[in-house]
Design goal:
Layout lengths: L7 E5 L3 H13 L3 E5 L2 H10 L4 E5 L7 H11 L5 E5 L4 H10 L3 E4 L4 H16 L12 H4 L5 H14 L5 E4 L6 H10 L8 E5 L5 H9 L16 H4 L4 E5 L6 H13 L1 E3 L6 E3 L3 E6 L3 H7 L4 H7 L2 E4 L10 H15 L6 E2 L1 H8 L6 H15 L4 E2 L1 H9 L24 H19 L4 H8 L3 H10 L4
Parallel strand pairs: 1-2, 1-3, 3-4, 4-5, 6-11, 6-12, 7-8, 8-11, 13-14
Antiparallel strand pairs: 9-10
Helix pairs in contact: 7-8, 11-13, 14-16, 15-17, 16-17, 18-19, 19-20
């Protein structure tokens, strides 16, 4: 493998010899391995240090790899999990993908193929899709909201779910496009089939093509066995292609054929594979602009845009904030072991007047921060204002309006004030999170990678 890899890999296996072999292999490739002989130790390691990818055996005493996958998904949803198994079959791969695995590796593994799979996972971890974990199959539990805008979206979604036409989900980041795709699948006749997702923007062309269509043994260096792609794994179910606007023209051609003919060839293969798949795509970009610029194929756009469905922004439906806030407060109180929380009238008004550029995702992260950092069971407008002021890059509102000093070398600049506030917020979050950096990142509403970069920038790493 020519490209040097960087990242922290948590390796989980009950075989000490295999842990040693994998540790040496990953170190040689430029990665930092963190061995764990069981799932319990693996979860403890995740809580203590930054991990980019988890590589776990499926069959282990005590908690299995599939159970570990579920625990990582609940506590560290942005950390991809790769599963290793000596019993690798397509049905097992489908089960793992449905459960949220990023990929799987067959034992005995080939060195180049293992590193190739890790490279894909590391790329996806550095550019994660918007988080969306379904907590139930009912439509209202997936897409919450009683506003007119959301009622219209859910009515269209129920109608679209009954057919097989391709659906194109549009809307800003954080509006819940993945949840809408999952809701469409769960309310369709295909609900018993797999729901497979792929974040197209996270992978370069060469990796995206193999991820979509799979590959034959010998297709490239490291392809030691035939491996099915996401299209094949989604047979009988739904394939969700997130950020479809980032797909290159070369891959667009192959996608167009699959959408038209429902057939493809694996990378390096000549056999035509036929599939029965429902396609759902999503983007926050203007595909129409891409067509005009010549970066997105017009024929592919029309194939995708059969049933367009726009997800409204949170600022377009402020009346839903009360319902969303109650839900997220209940969920985060239970998750963080806190007593139930409620919002005062001025607290709710403070939430409703915010623009929430990150939409529901930003609101959810902010409410978790409120739950963890607040003392009383009733959250007030003052609590909301306090936590807004602690966000990195956002200075708290001034108590008074002092006279501006004349420019001089020792005057307080906007940039220096921003850095002071940012550092204070980082220190406070680490203190309240008990130095658990994963939790601190969630409290601040940023990714773990952003948190590590900020800690290094401020000399706190």
């Amino acid at each position: 493998m020519s490209d040097a890899l960087k990242g922290h890999v948590l390796v989980v296996d009950d075989d000490p010899a295999l842990l040693k072999v994998l540790g040496a292999l990953l170190t040689q490739a430029g990665l930092t391995p963190h061995p764990a002989s069981n799932a319990k130790d693996a979860l403890a390691l995740l809580a203590r240090r930054p991990i980019d990818v988890v590589l776990s055996d499926v069959r282990m005493p005590g908690m299995s790899g599939m159970e570990l996958l579920a625990e990582v998904g609940r506590g560290w949803p942005d950390v991809p999990v790769l599963l290793m198994t000596a019993h690798g079959t397509v049905p097992l791969a489908v089960e793992a993908m449905k459960a949220g695995a990023a990929d799987f590796v067959l034992k005995p593994f080939d060195r180049e193929e293992l590193l190739f799979t890790l490279k894909k996972a590391l790329l996806q971890a550095s550019n994660p899709p918007e988080p969306a974990r379904a907590e139930g199959k009912a439509l209202d539990s997936l897409l919450m909201g009683q506003s007119r805008a959301m009622t219209e979206v859910k009515a269209l979604l129920v109608k679209a779910a009954q057919g097989t036409a391709t659906v194109l989900l549009r809307g800003e980041s954080g509006t819940g496009k993945e949840l809408a795709a999952r809701a469409l699948h769960e309310n369709s006749p295909r609900r018993s089939g797999p729901f497979v997702k792929l974040h197209c923007a996270a992978l370069p062309d060469t990796l995206l093509e193999s991820e979509l269509f799979g590959y034959e043994k010998g297709a490239f260096t490291g392809a030691a066995t035939r491996k099915p792609g996401r299209v094949e794994l989604a047979h009988g179910g739904t394939l969700f292609l997130d950020e479809i606007g980032d797909v290159s023209p070369a891959v667009q051609v192959k996608l167009l054929r699959v959408l038209q003919e429902r057939e493809f060839e694996r990378l390096g293969g000549t056999q035509t594979v036929k599939v029965d798949v429902r396609f759902v795509a999503a983007t926050h970009q203007s595909l129409e602009d891409g067509v005009r610029r010549g970066t997105f194929r017009e024929d592919l756009f029309y194939r995708l845009n059969v049933v367009p469905l726009w997800l409204p922004t949170l600022r377009e439906r402020p009346e839903d904030i009360a319902l969303l806030a109650r839900h997220f407060l209940d969920v985060h109180a239970k998750t963080n072991g806190r007593p139930p929380f409620s919002l005062s009238e001025d607290g709710l008004r403070a939430l409703q007047t915010q623009p929430w550029p990150g939409n529901v995702r930003q609101l959810q992260n902010f409410l978790e921060r409120l739950v963890v950092l607040s003392d009383g069971p009733v959250l007030t407008g003052a609590d909301v204002a306090r936590e807004l002021s602690r966000q990195p890059g956002i200075a708290p509102p001034p108590v008074s309006a002092p006279l501006l000093p004349s420019p001089s070398s020792d005057s307080v600049t906007l940039e220096s004030r921003r850095k002071d506030v940012e550092k204070e917020a980082l220190v406070d979050a680490l203190k309240r999170a008990g130095d658990n950096r994963t939790l601190a990142a969630r409290l601040l509403g940023v990714s773990r990678r952003t948190l590590y970069n900020k800690l290094e920038e401020h000399g706190l790493s």
